[in-house]
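Researcher: Batch entry, complex prediction.
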Amino acid sequence: MFTQYFGLKFNPFTKEIQADKLFISQDLLELESRLQYLQNTRGIGLVAGEPGSGKSTALRKYVSELNPGLYKSCYFSLSNVTVLEFYQGLALELGEQPLHKKVAIFHQIQQAINSMYYERRITPVIILDEIHLASNKLLEDLRLIFNFKMDSQNPFILILAGQPLIRSKLTLNINNPLRQRLVVKYIMQGLKLEEVKDYCSSRLKLAGLIEDVFTDSAIEAITSSTNGLPRLVNSLVTNCLLYAYEKKQRHIDNEVVYQAQNELNI
Ligand SMILES: Nc1ncnc2c1ncn2[C@@H]1O[C@H](COP(=O)(O)OP(=O)(O)O)[C@@H](O)[C@H]1O
Ligand SMILES: [Mg+2]
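Model: Structure tokens for the complex:
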């Protein structure tokens, strides 16, 4: 296996990374500071970015660092629940036995959020991932559910995360009210050249390899063909390591990257 060849304890580019071992990218820092702000104001935030840019990973890290005595996190992805399942699931997570009618569930959710925040002093942090899959109806309903008119203090944090399409959906007139309520927004930019370099060497180090196997030309080629999207970087780098292993080549230059990229394109 290439891991043995390179003296790696595991492939650091496929393994699910623990939240505390993530690469601290500019994206991660910028998003964190916005989420920090949102934590103080509460209300609704938006994280958009290409698939594989690290949105879900960053949110997983954020949630893992919340004090469970002060925050109750609930995560849903529209790629694996229906809209009704989301409403029911949310009501359940907030401690309610979901009723049947949608309007009744909305009411339950609001009541549960209010009592959690005002009676138990716990802020619900609700993450709705893959929000670009939402219909305009769902976006409108979200605005209604998360509209706590009686108080200007938002008793919740709602984070919407999804692909860039969500931004154009939100610019539609009908979605104006929701867009206007966004307290923070962040668009993931992907890793910059220097970051790809640091990312590759720090991942290799994590798996026990200190030596720099990627040349500067390789890093440039990897950055330009992946746009710095972590998921694409991971798969291209893995393929580079495989290819170099097959050729018994200890160093990875741009030639190896092109060959590995070609294999991935097949
Ligand atoms: N900061 C990071 N450090 C290490 N790996 C990361 C980081 N951000 C993303 N990744 C990796 O990139 C892949 C894609 O990230 P993901 O969060 O699923 O993207 P998205 O939700 O934007 O589609 C994941 O497998 C994850 O392990
Ligand atoms: Mg995701």
